[in-house]
Structure formats: structure tokens, C-alpha cells
Task: structure prediction
Amino acid sequence: MVLALLLAASLPDFTGYVVDQAHLLDANAVAHVTAVASRLDHAGIAQIAVCTVPESALADDSLEDYAVALFKKWGLGHGVKRDDGLLVLFVPGAAGHRKIRIEVGYGLEGILPDGKVGQVRTQQAFPYMRNDDYSGAATHVVDAVAAILEKDAAAGGDAAPARDGPRRGTGVGIRGYAGPANYGGLGITILCMAGFAILLASSAARRQFPGRRIQLAGAGLAGGSVLSLLAMNSGAGWLALVVGLIVNAVIWASIRAHKCPRDGSWMVIDEDLVASPTYWSQGLAHVTQICTNRACGYRREYDKVLPRKQVTVVTGGGRGGGWGGGGGGGGGFSGGGGGRSGGGGASGEV
Result:
């Protein structure tokens, strides 16, 4: 579960038809692309999204693998029966390394085969990208794709909305949309988990074990975090919740370790270092446990062996494949809101 959250959090959340994380697009371009994408979405023709990310976001993944993973996370398309999603991904770079990927869903590959998509990329994107004009590239690519799809839909082709298709929408029909910004759930989760940690720490400072009130308060804060994340979907928020629960569980276990085994009172634990561990030998510490209840009189002393220091060895090696299927093969499938990329489309660098 933690790994899945980490993978989800590493990809940008869907916050609109345009997600400009690399800050490449001007306000006019964002407004134009949003209007065109909303028109196609409302008509039930296709769901188009444009995303820009810095080159560092790709890490070890290829452009194609990253596009497939993002396509899948956002659930582009009006359901798996139509698979009519399309993603335009821009990654800025130096001359010769400005990247674009147009990822096409299964349901649109008959209308937008690789050759036609490649032509759109070359004619509508490359001339602008060479001048670092990503706003021009985005608007021209989206306009060209929209013209092809709307012409096909008007002629009753594959892009024509089905009788039971989603002809009406909210203006942003992609699954997982949570408003212009998704930081609310993350902020509430951080505050709730921090509040729980403060409650536990204050209890430990008073040498008291967490009682029923603190337990109920912790459950309430965790529940509030979950509700906020369900209302304001955020991969980073879910990750913060998992980390917060782990941290609070460690604090809880540390407090419980101070419970006297004889009468349950608070027990003071002192650990004196006798010999420090090295890379070649173990260390030694002398531990003293004393119950704070004088009537109990519990006391225990023992030596604790400390493990040797560990040498971290880093070996090279790249990752193969990436997430969700390669750009040239079948894409991944996320049920519900579409998200199936056929692996078709076009990539390029200028």
C-alpha cells in the first residue's frame, strides 16, 4: 500500500484540463486549451488533457512510460467502453532535448493513428517548441486534434458520442478531479497527524499513558483526515496520512515501553553507553529500569548489545520497463473512469 501511494504521489494530480507544473504556458493558452477540452468533454467526444512537467520529474523513466502512467492515474476517457482519452505531455529542455508525447487512448486510435498524430506533432508543435513557445505548441496541437475529432463525430464516425454516452458533464469530467487545488486535504491531514503526535507527547511529558480520551481523540483525528482526503483527493495527502500514522504508532509504542510490568505505573528507563559500536564490533549499553511508584520498588538492570554499524553499498543499474506498460505496447488499465492508453501516439525531441 505504501509503495502504491509513493508511486501515485510522484505523479501530478489532475487539477484541470491543463496541469502546468513546469510553468511553460501563459494564461491565454491555458484558457484556450481548457475551453476546447471542456467542449469536447461536454459533447462526449473525448477527454483531452495537457500537462507540462520539468525534466527532473521523469527520473529514470522514459517519456513514453511516464505518459502512460499519468494517463492511467488521471483515468482519461469516458469509461473503458469508449477509451476516448488523449494526453499531450511537454517536458522542457535544452535545444535538441525539448520533449513532447501525445498519448492516445484505445478508442481514438482509429481516428488518430500514429502517422496522423506524428504529423500533428511535427507541424503543430515542433515549430513553436524550437522557439520555447510551449503555449503556441499546446494550443495548435489541441486545436488540430479537436478539429479531427469533431469532423469525425459530425460524420457519425468513431468519435460520435454513443446514445448512452456522457453528453452532459460538470465541465471537468475526468475521474478524480477535486477542484482547482488539492492542497486542502493534505493540509488537514498534516494538522490532524501533528495534533495526535502533540497529544501523545504531552501525555508522555506528564508521565501518563494515553487514556481513553486520547485514544478517542486520535481515532477522531485519523477519521477526519480520511474524510478530508475522500472529499479533496490528493495522492500526497494519502502519503502524509500513512507517514503520520506510522510516526504516531512509534510514539505510542515508545510510551507503552515505559509501563512497569509489576504495577503498571510509569517506569523511567535510562540507557548508559558503555562501548560504542563500530563497523567491526558490536557496542554495549547498560540499561536501568526503575518504577516511579516507590511502593512498587521495581528495578531492573541489564546490558544491551548494540549492533555493528552497517556499510551502505550502492550499485548501479537502470530500471527496465517503467510503469503501466511501455509506450509501444499495450498500456495499463484502471477501471472506472477510463485510463486505458493503447500505447499509440507520437513522441519527439527538438
